[in-house]
Structure formats: C-alpha cells, structure tokens
Amino acid sequence: MTEPLTAAVIVSLFFSEAIKEGGKAFTKGVTDTFAQLVNTIREKFKAEGTEGLLKRAESEPTQKNKEKLQDELQTQMDADEAFANKLKELVRQLQAQDERIRQVVLSEIELTGDLKAKDISQKAKRVGSVSQEMVKAVKATNIDLGNLNQDA
Hints:
By secondary structure, the protein is of the alpha/beta class. It has six helices and six strands, in the order ααααααββββββ.
C-alpha cells in the first residue's frame, strides 16, 4: 500500500534545496516534470484566487508561509479530486525518474517551546544514491527524541 499524497510532501518538494539549485544533478525529464508540477499548482491557485499565498511563500519561504501554503494546497486537493490526482501522478513520475533517494525529517524547524518526536522511521527501498537526514537545523527550548530509525 502506498502512502497517500499530502500537501506536506508537495510543499517539501517545492522548497527542496536540490530543486532550488536549478536541478543541476537532475535529468531533463525530472526538471520538466517538476516544472509541470509547479505550473499545475500555480494555475490552480490562480484560478482559485489564492496565488498570493504561493507568491509570498516563494519570495519569503518562512516556516509560517510554508505552512499557510501547505494548508491551502491540502484544502484544494481535498476539494478537487482531479487536481489531487494530477499532482499524485506528477509526484509519481518524479519519483520514477529520479534514481536518487532523498529523505528529510524534522528540518529547519524553529520553536519557542519544546519539540517531542517519537517513532520516526526512514526506509529507502530502491538501489541508488540515498541521502537521509533525520534532524537538521532544529531549534527548540527542549528537544525530546526517541526511536528514530534510518534504513537504506
């Protein structure tokens, strides 16, 4: 069973460091498919009158702006099955075209309070280049982590 596509997955792709660097290591197919994903989202947001959220998140990619973008994207995916299916297919194509696997959990989070995370696993099933990051650039008053697993 495959995991359901969520707006969190797409927003994570959208702001991926590898993509922002111009996709230098990606094939033309991957960069074309990513551009199609971005354009599909942009067109949907424009049609729904929420393009400002996307523009703000792109120009100021703060955690708050990313969360607002993610919430709106999830709302639009929930309301429009055809749109959600189109995004799911584009993400599937990206995953099929990219031989590298990059998994990131708990990255670039700033909290004024505590962070508690338990039972987080990353597992890469394909052969190829694998990059896994479990906790990166996290700032919190207290951090309580438990049962973190990575397997490649």
